[in-house]
Design brief:
27% strand, five-stranded antiparallel sheet, 1 helix, three-stranded antiparallel sheet, Immunoglobulin-like
Length: 179
């Protein structure tokens, strides 16, 4: 008996054999990798940035009378910083400073100056900020434990400022947290 081979049938048979053989190898290779329990590492990282949130209230003095004793007041700042941060709170000389001296501005014409200052202590001996002689500024420093740090700001308006006219006076001091 004589068989007739069709060339296209032979090509189809060869292609099928190659495909089935390669699938068997791929499947065996996959099964071997799964069965061996391969492991890997996922690295996880972050950076805890040092930061502070600052809160303030107004340093409000009683009505000023130049003939009366020195006018004083106090308020607190709030600095909540990252745990473990070494922080220094610095105060600027204010918006109306002249040669390092703090002034509130206002009065009847809005241009009068009233000299005042702020201190780290209730004895008004440690000025909070640079000194008039250009020495390094006094600052409030602390190591944060993550909870609010609340230093007191002590303010003083000196007597005998007879140039002060009636009216409202104000200034703005910038607080900077350095860490």
């Amino acid at each position: 008996m004589k068989s007739k081979f069709n060339k296209s049938n032979i090509k189809l048979a060869i292609a099928t054999a190659i495909l089935v053989g390669s699938t068997g190898i791929s499947t065996a290779s996959y099964a071997e990798n799964v069965a061996s329990g391969g492991t890997g590492t996922l690295n996880v990282t972050t950076l805890v940035a040092v930061a502070c949130t600052l809160g303030t209230s107004t340093l409000a003095f009683n009505d000023y009378n130049s003939a009366v004793d020195t006018n004083t007041s106090s308020t607190t700042l709030t600095a909540t910083c990252t745990n473990g941060a070494n922080v220094s709170l610095k105060l600027s000389d204010g918006s109306n400073a002249i040669n390092g001296a703090r002034h509130m501005i206002g009065g009847g014409n809005g241009l009068q100056l009233l000299t005042y200052d702020v201190y780290l202590d209730s004895g008004y001996s440690n000025r909070w900020g640079a000194t008039a002689t250009g020495e390094a500024p006094d600052v409030h420093s602390f190591t944060s434990d993550g909870s609010p740090n609340t230093p007191t700001v002590y303010g003083k308006i000196v007597t005998n400022q007879t140039n002060a006219t009636g009216g409202s006076y104000s200034d703005a001091i910038t607080i900077t947290a350095v860490y």
